[in-house]
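HOLO CASE FILE
Compound: magnesium ion
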Amino acid sequence: MKVMKFGGTSVGKPERMHQVAQLITNDTEPKIVVLSALSGTTNTLVSIGDALSKGEKENAKQIIDKLESHYHEFVQSLLHQEATCAKANAILAEHFEFLNIITKISFNEALNKDILAQGELMSTKLFSVYLEEQGIKHALLPALEFMSIDANDEPQVAVIRQKLLPVLAAHPGIDLFITQGYICRNIRGEVDNLKRGGSDYTASLIAAAANCSVCEIWTDIDGMHNNDPRVVNKTVPIEQLSFEEAAELAYFGAKILHPTCIWPAQQEKVPVKLLNTMQPEAAGTVITQEAGSVGVKAVAAKDGIIAINIKSSRMLLAYGFLRKIFEVFEKYRTPIDMITTSEVAVSVTIDSAAFLPLIIKELEPFGTVEVDSDQTIVSIVGNDIAQTKDILSRLFDCLKPVPVRMVSYGGSRHNVSLLIPSAYKTETLQLLNKGLFDL
Ligand code: ADP
Ligand code: ASP
Ligand code: MG
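Model generated. Tokens follow.
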């Protein structure tokens, strides 16, 4: 059994969906196909929720109508038979009726999650109808029956496995399953999701839960590149990464993977492959236990970082100081990404401002607190890079024009992280492309 996950652009046009149907029937290995919403849909659903949360019902209605016409056009080119067209139109009618009803009732966060789920529900149902038109035997599995998160909003492989295996077993003789990425149920049984880009996470969780031979992530680029192709002109794909390297790149901003999607595959040692739907013959990137070569492999950048500096002479020779500071972040469930310390000060970074005022208030008794927003973490990732002798001199050589605010080195064998003002991100990534990769 293998998992094949197709992202938004891979299913965003009728001809792409046709191509996906070909890719999943190319070989005979049983598979679970995970689909995202059509590209742009989740953004549109977010804007519907935003409009409703502000009481702008007319605006929400207009966005819904526009989305509905888009889906009707999509279905017209996707399908060619009367019976399947009628089925697809009935699916659209059901989902758009739901969205229209929501504009009439009072809005809340649980309803918003229902709105966000419509994209994956529609893409998988439409794809299933297309497979039916093509005479391709398959079963559509509702992810809401087996994909769940716990009280801390975390998915648990063992719990998912317990629910997924009976669902698969209920379809003897079927070796092609289609299901939704991104959506799940929370501890209260409500519809929820695995956060933006979460279909990758679904794929990895299913691959781990069903002990799959491989988790293939099909997207619009030929694998993990050495640098962010949205920012830097010339980038190249990386042949092989270890789970640790891939996890660091994903967490520190390489958008091709959901930030936390690697751990389930890593836990069950399922190789992950990053492949290009538009160029299926390209080698892509293979992510396994082994790192392959030593040295720097890629850089990634994560925006929206806030640096907090706490300065206190009481820290001098004191113990227990860091614990008290960390407890404040723990209390507000705000993870710390980077940390640097001196004898009298400590700097940490966080990526969420949700509880910032409360955090600052609780830190103030410890010393002087300074906050810098609009920061970016740039991570240089590779295998054993801390052992690569000249890495720091090469880094600082090429980054002379950049005011580096923090450096984290030695915490992991795979990563050197720098904190820079976001205004310098493009320049930093370009300088690193030249200085580290000669591109
Ligand atoms: P999907 O819709 O298939 O999930 P995403 O848009 O989430 O696709 O991820 C693919 C995109 O990630 C690419 O088009 C590329 O612009 C972006 N990206 C950012 N950093 C990297 C990187 N280091 N390597 C490859 N792609 C990257
Ligand atoms: N459709 C969701 C999103 O756009 C999940 C995904 O595509 O991975 O975030
Ligand atoms: Mg994605």
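CASE NOTES: Residues 7, 197, 200 surround magnesium ion (ligand 3) (CB under 6 Å). The chain has two domains: 2-220, 297-437.
CLOSED: yes
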